[in-house]
Design a protein that fits this description.
The protein contains 3 helices and 2 strands; from the N terminus they run H-H-H-E-E. The chain is rod-shaped and about 100 Å long. The model has no long low-confidence stretch (mean pLDDT about 80).
């Protein structure tokens, strides 16, 4: 018998004993017997749920511990390379449109947008690259 079959067998024995006792004692003890049996069922359910919750908590703690020890890179070389290529390919028509419509200022705005998008991408994939700043107790003070 596995663990679950043994528990089911115990529960079946408890039910049989409760029904046998009810036959012997009569209807006046029926509610007390049913309450007693339901209390055993509740305890069984509580123990199963408690075991499952503890198991899931342990799995989450193990996952968190593993993630803390082996950080994965947030992006791959292919993603960085692809983003760079797409930026350069889109820079050509954006430069032409900006230069054609507003001449030099339009081209500068287009390139400022391209550079801005690339800076945001680098900051997103490399969070410590630009130096994290931490707040102090004062609202207007920052420290490195």
């Amino acid at each position: 018998m596995t663990g679950m079959d043994a528990r089911d067998a115990d529960l079946k024995k408890d039910l049989d004993a409760t029904l046998h006792t009810r036959r012997e004692l009569g209807e006046e003890y029926e509610s007390a017997l049913v309450d007693s049996f339901l209390e055993k069922v509740d305890q069984r359910i509580d123990s199963v749920v408690d075991r499952r919750v503890r198991r899931q908590l342990a799995e989450q703690q193990m996952t968190a511990a593993r993630d803390g020890r082996s950080p994965r890179p947030t992006d791959t070389f292919g993603e960085r390379f692809g983003f760079g290529i797409v930026s350069l390919v889109l820079a050509i028509p954006l430069s032409a449109i900006g230069g054609g419509v507003a001449h030099l200022p339009g081209m500068l705005v287009a390139w400022a947008g391209i550079v801005g998008v690339n800076v945001v991408q680098v900051a997103r994939t490399n969070p410590g690259l630009f130096g994290r700043r931490h707040r102090t107790g004062r609202d207007d003070a920052w420290e490195d």
